[in-house]
Amino acid sequence: MVRLGVVKEFEPGERRVATVPAVLPKLLGLGFEVLVEHDAGVGVFQPDSAYAQAGATVVDAATLDAQADVLLCVGPPGPERVARLRRGQVLVGLLNAAGNAELVATLAERGVTAVSLELLPRTLSRAQSMDALTSQANVAGYKAAILAADTYGGYFPLLMTAAGTAKPAQVLVLGVGVAGLAAIGTARRLGALVTGYDIRPETRTEVESVGARFLELSGVAAADGVGGYARALTDEERAAQQAALQQRIGDFDVLITTAQVPGRRPPALVTEEAVKGMRPGSVVVDLAAGPWGGNVAGVEADRTIVTTDGVTLIGAGRLPSAMASAASAAYARNVAALTAHLVRDGAPAIDLSDEIQAAIVATHDGKALLS
Ligand code: NAD
Predict the structure, then answer these.
(1) Which of 4, 37, 41 has the alpha carbon at shortest distance from 21?
(2) Stretch 294-310: mean pLDDT, rounded?
(3) Angle at CA 175, nearest 5°, toward 287 and 284?
(4) Which amino acids bring their CB within 6 angstroms of ligand 1?
(5) Hey, which of 54, 72, 94, 356 would disulfide with 21, CB 3.0 to 4.6 Å?
């Protein structure tokens, strides 16, 4: 019988967990035995007793690492855990293999099979239930709109009261992939007037289909990349886009940005000048904000700053962790679907001729497999 091990997350402030008690019956029904590290679920208010009641065995970290065949995590594990992993063990998580050469090399050296979930092919229909990037981006987009509404000093909807009429907030969402569409839908449901913009022209119909307007920017080239992603812009294209956006951004009360290009630092969409052009009281939520910057100049990861002109800049790159219960429940279902796919006849079965596995298995049998 394959033993799954649910680890307590390593990164400080990470509240998510790879499996929640509500999803344990599914894992047990698939024939897995489940070990859960002590306190793994505290960030989602699930004590050890909830996991035990649902059929898991709660153990300490060292026991989990020694006994689990497949370790489930959200983010990459820390060095102490990595040093305990052994040949043939499978590690599943959002490991950021492409951006984490040192971890990949160590896992390969130790003979661990590393499954890096963010590498999953997005458009393959049989992989959709495993798509953790999508589930987490949905949470982030929803939470971004809620956070913006909570921070903004005005109403989102048009409100007519005896004390007068409140105008609806004007919300602009830049980057309308999964998170952007979730942000648009949520801001619309709160009653705001929403506009969306993306560098991929096919997003226009998606924006309009959720009841928002598409922002037309003159002089900016389309930038489709491969696999439904955008490509990085040239320096001239980026300057043209920044200039065109700068002319329009001052019309909006709330700006939510989500633009990403795979394997690159987030594109710089909004300059300092453009932020200066926003009205006092405006709110910016930058979902791309991380250690290497975000989409908006002046935003800092995990911080809220009010500029001298009265614009609130929120560096919100870790919103799934801020809504850890929903994010973990969805992630747990993604991981359950994936582990079912990785196991045959009661043992992990790595098959690199399978299209899904070929994409996500980053190390196997002592080798790093990313090209
Ligand atoms: P992402 O997080 O990589 O990027 C977010 C958005 O930023 C994208 O829409 C991208 O076009 C946009 N962007 C990048 N550079 C930009 C720039 N300079 N200006 C404006 N916008 C810019 O994207 P994602 O949410 O992970 O989605 C990636 C693709 O995968 C999309 O085409 C999405 O529809 C597709 N997808 C498909 C499925 C499916 O078919 N089941 C599931 C999930 C995602």
Answers:
(1) 41
(2) 97
(3) 45
(4) 122-123, 128, 131, 133-134, 137, 174-180, 198-200, 228-230, 233, 241, 258-262, 267, 269
(5) 54
- The Cα–Cα gap between 360 and 102 comes to 17
Q: Which atom of ligand 1 is nearest to the CA of 176?
A: 9
Task: State the Cα–Cα distance between residues 110 and 107, nearest whole angstrom.
Answer: 5
Instruction: Name the H helices within 131-213.
Output: 132-151, 178-189, 203-209
Residue 119 is encoded by which pair of tokens? 């590498």
- What digits encode the pLDDT tens for the residues 123-164? 899 999 999 999 999 999 999 999 999 999 999 999 999 999
328 touches 51 (CB < 8 A): no
Helix (H) or strand (E) holding 276: helix 272-276
How far is the centre of ligand 1, averaged over its atoms, from the C-alpha of 287 (Å)? Answer: 13
Are the C-beta atoms of 16 and 82 separated by less than 8 Å?
A: no
Sheet holding 70-72, edge to edge: 57-59, 33-37, 3-6, 70-72, 90-93, 113-116, 361-364, 367-368
- Which amino acid is residue 231, in one-letter code? R
Distance 163 CA to ligand 1 centre (A): 43
Radius of gyration of the chain from Cα atoms?
22
